[in-house]
Write a structure and sequence with these properties.
The protein is an alpha/beta fold and 391 residues long. It has two domains: 301 residues, Ureohydrolase domain (Arginase, Chain A), CATH 3.40.800.10; 71 residues, no CATH class. It is built from twelve helices and 14 strands.
């Protein structure tokens, strides 16, 4: 592995294996970067666990850099759902001399994994590491979508020092820019300046309040299905379920809802990296948050191995096609329903030849509700935002 110089080995956590080959735990299956065995081969691997011991840009100034090893202890003890999974654990990326040095290492390691069609599961560290994750796609020259599960937008202001509460602005303003769309899932209005909400609308980005998602959990599925990067801020989970975060609050997602979102992300053919951030071990009573994070990763893995490979980006022959007539500015919207999974997409027409570089984003994941609304001559917001970007 070319980026091996950035990786440090870890000790395999002590988990109880019953020796029964019919009930193997993940710790029996994962090939781990240890002092004795070295870095596992990338050949055949589909998922790679990567710990990042960096939190110097944490807004809270609370340590969250050694979270990965504690999460591993609980993850390795969970039972596998199949024998036919191939996961490697590359160990940790330690703090560089500067934070930028750490970002550089993260960028290179993730880029190499993506080049090898391996999906990294990142365990931070503070959420500003999402910026380093984004830079890996810049190295590829790939235009991408980012989805965050977060109680705020993490925009900050232009005057602020870059940290885990302002990294989104850094991504938006970065040049050259490879961000096509940003989606926030689960923001809480009292944590968000109304001017920031207006800015998101002007930028044609997607934002969804916590109450809407919790009342319509199935609507979270097309949102994460549209993402290349998923960044999960563990402070978006309510304190009763996740007390050990850098900013616990009374309200947020329940643990089982967080797991459901992670399964949705795993099932998406488009998601090619996911990160879990803001776990603070010193505040984690009985390691409850680390244990929940391990279960969230388990659900992502389970979803990943149930992918249907049915994104209609190129071949649409195995789909039911529905042409819905729309009045006013749009003649019709074309919907596709997968006969494999029952999932829905909307097609946005290519308005200009120079927009061909955005071809991956013309098929917009949606729900049956979007189809119903379009049938009532109501243009779905998701479709309209993409259409406006391409006009």
């Amino acid at each position: 592995m070319d980026s091996s110089i950035y990786l440090t080995p870890v000790s395999i956590p002590d988990f109880k294996s019953d020796g029964n080959m019919q009930r193997r735990r993940l710790g029996d299956i994962i090939k781990t970067h240890t002092f004795d065995d070295g870095i596992p081969s990338l050949d055949g691997a589909r998922l790679a666990i990567l710990g990042i011991n960096e939190s110097r840009n944490s807004f809270s100034n609370l340590p969250c850099s050694n979270a990965a090893d504690i999460v591993r202890k609980h993850l390795y003890a969970l039972f596998s759902f199949s024998h036919n999974i191939n996961i490697i654990d590359l160990g940790n990326i330690s703090q560089g001399e500067t934070v930028d040095d750490t970002y550089f290492a993260v960028r290179n390691v993730i880029a190499e994994l993506i080049d090898n069609r391996i999906t990294p599961i990142i365990i931070g560290g503070s959420q500003d590491l999402t910026y380093a994750n984004y830079l890996a796609y810049e190295k590829q020259g790939k235009i991408i979508n980012l989805a965050t599960i977060d109680s705020s937008f993490d925009l900050g202001t232009s005057e602020e020092v870059f940290d885990s509460k302002s990294y989104i602005s850094k991504i938006i303003l970065h040049q050259p820019n490879y961000l096509f769309n940003f989606t926030n899932i689960g923001y809480q209005s009292y944590f968000v300046d109304y001017e920031a909400v207006n800015l998101m609308r002007k930028l044609l980005f997607d934002t969804y309040r916590l109450g809407f998602i919790r009342s319509n959990m199935e609507e979270a599925e097309p949102l994460v299905r549209n993402a290349d990067i998923v960044s999960f801020d563990l402070t978006s989970i309510r304190q009763s379920d996740a007390p050990g975060t850098t900013g616990p609050t009374p309200n947020g997602f329940y643990g089982e809802e967080a797991c459901q979102i992670c399964r949705y992300a795993g099932m998406s053919d488009k998601v090619s990296s996911i990160g879990f951030y803001e776990l603070c071990p010193e505040k984690d009573l009985n390691e409850q948050t680390a244990h929940l994070t391990a279960e969230m990763i388990w659900y992502f893995i389970e979803g990943f191995y149930n992918r249907k490979g049915d994104h209609p980006h190129k071949n649409k022959t195995d789909y039911m096609k529905y042409n819905v007539q729309i009045d006013n500015q749009v003649d019709e919207i074309v919907f596709y329903k997968s006969q494999k999974s029952g999932r829905w997409w909307m097609e946005v027409p290519l308005t200009k030849p120079e927009f061909a570089k955005y071809q991956r984003h013309f098929m917009v994941p949606c729900s049956y509700r979007d189809y119903e609304n379009a049938s009532k001559r109501d243009i779905p917001d998701r479709w309209w935002q993409v259409y406006q970007k391409l006009m």
